[in-house]
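FW: tagging you since you asked about this chain on Friday. Here's the raw sequence from the shared folder, copied in full. Didn't touch anything.
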Amino acid sequence: MDEEHDDVKHMNQMVMYSKIVTVRDKQLLESKILEEEWVREQKRLDLMMEIERLKSLQESEERDNRRAVARKQGAAVIIDQIKEREQERIKQRELLEKEKIQMLKNIEVMKAADQAAIEKKKVRNKEMVAEVEKVNKVALGKKSEKVQKEKDEDLEIVRYEADKRHREELALMEERKIKEEKEKEIQRLRDLQERAADRQSEIDALRQKRAFEEGERAARSKEVMEADKRAR
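HL: got it, structure written out here
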């Protein structure tokens, strides 16, 4: 019954107004602090984004050069992996776009619910804009980290392929070296066989010469004996 008195109602309205004003002042102060922090953070992010942009340009140029070399060398596996990552990035962009659309819908719902208090609606809109920007910045940061991670993975794959080709070239050079040494050894054995064959031929020729000379000496001796016999 006391609550139904006009004085009590008026007093309750004053208390409620006091609470609302206190909350509003607190929100304005928090909004100002957040805005200052956002300006500082924006400057820091601008600097970081510029550094990342320059690094991204450099890495993009290096990656393009590596990909050109990889394509010339027929690295189909690397190209397939890059395509898969590109599809993954497209899916991530689509997911971020859906999240952004859903967030905008949520903002519209909240705006419709706060139409009764115009001032509160304005403050809330500012807060939501700041929140959206913060979420977008976080999403962009995560996206940059993911892109950097994918770049590092691409670089690791290229390095692995280069090391693999280097090992294969070393193995091929070692195989050629062993083959050349074997061929040299075979050639040396052939030379030894040829020299041995030449030596054997010389021995055979010497034996034939000695046999021929012995035959001639025997024939001359026989002729002398026959001549002596005839003389007697």
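FW: The chain has one domain: 2-186.
HL: agreed, and DSSP finds three helices and no strands in the chain.
FW: great, closing this out.
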